[in-house]
Write a structure and sequence with these properties.
The protein is built from eleven helices and nine strands. By secondary structure, it is an alpha/beta fold. The strands form two sheets. A six-stranded parallel beta sheet has the order 1-4-3-2-5-6, sandwiched between helices. Strands 7-8-9 form a three-stranded antiparallel beta sheet, with helices on one face. Helix 10 runs antiparallel to helix 11. It starts with a strand and ends with a strand.
Length: about 280
């Protein structure tokens, strides 16, 4: 396993790999790795000769300073986990200065409305920050394929949009959500939950599953109202939003179309920690 802290150093190494006709995969992360991340890394290793895993807590995608400061960090543990997976992993661990220099600022992107709903409505500037760091990593690594988890499904669609609009020659691959035994979507933020809350947090996934069961016979509004009532009765969790939307355009569903794929999206606060999840409905 090789560890790189500087863009030029990594790019030089990858240049030599390409001379050997080696394919390159990229798995961008913010560290605090869990089995969800490891599943992305393993898929990337199956499909590429070398895999770059970036570990960088990106300040420009946090809309709250407190959330950035509390984001879990454990680089030694992350490196140990990756070392156990494969020696063909290249780890990119840049500093904030290496990425942004003196000016920590996002670029502005046109996402054709994908960024205006759900997460975009509640996290101002978040997706410009995501676009900025992912574009930088795609240009630095120039991977054949880049892997992202579907837990952040809106982010995945936005990254696809950004890569296409910038004409970046990389295949963006979405990978299924990895879940804890009781259904909670795996997330680095789960480490901040109390034992009691984490144990009960399967409630979020159970609610999504119940919404899926209702989807065949009830309207989006009725399902959303039912979800709100469910959360009102559970004091451990505070619902921020629940939305049924077109999977491709992320447009909220008004009237069901037979040729459209839909997902239910949810954001919840628990112990002051913000959790998101989603589930395909049809």
């Amino acid at each position: 396993m090789h560890i790189f802290h500087h863009k030029k150093e990594l790019m030089s190494f990858l240049g030599e790999e390409r001379k050997k006709n080696h394919t390159i995969g990229l798995v961008p992360t913010m560290g605090a790795l869990h089995e969800g991340h490891i599943s992305l890394v393993k898929k990337a290793l199956l499909e590429n000769d070398k895999v770059v895993v970036s570990i960088f807590v990106n300040p420009t995608q946090f809309d709250k300073k407190d959330d950035l400061e509390k984001y879990p960090r454990n680089l030694d543990r992350d490196l140990t986990l990756l070392e156990l997976v494969s020696e063909n992993i290249l780890v990119f661990v840049p500093s904030v200065d290496e990425i942004y220099g003196e000016h920590i600022k996002s670029q502005s992107y046109e996402f054709n409305g994908l960024d205006k709903v759900m997460e975009g409505e509640f996290r101002e500037g978040h997706f410009n920050g995501v676009g900025t760091i992912v574009e930088l990593f795609l240009r630095t690594v120039s991977p054949d394929k880049a892997y992202f988890g579907e837990k952040d499904f809106q982010q995945l669609q936005i990254i696809r949009k950004m890569a296409a609009s910038k004409k970046l020659p990389c295949e963006i691959i979405g990978c299924p959500i990895e879940r804890e035994p009781h259904g909670l979507a795996m997330s680095s933020r789960n480490e901040r939950l109390s034992k009691t809350t984490r144990k009960e947090a399967g409630f979020i996934y159970e609610t999504l599953q119940a919404a899926k069961a209702k989807f065949g016979t009830e309207s989006a509004r009725n399902i959303a109202d039912w979800v709100k009532e469910k959360f009102k009765k559970n004091p451990l969790f505070q619902l921020e939003y629940f939305q049924i939307a077109d999977e491709d355009t992320l447009t909220p569903m008004l009237k069901k179309q037979n040729d459209t794929k839909y997902r239910a999206f949810i954001a919840v606060y628990a112990d002051g920690v913000r959790l998101i999840d989603n589930l395909r409905l049809n």
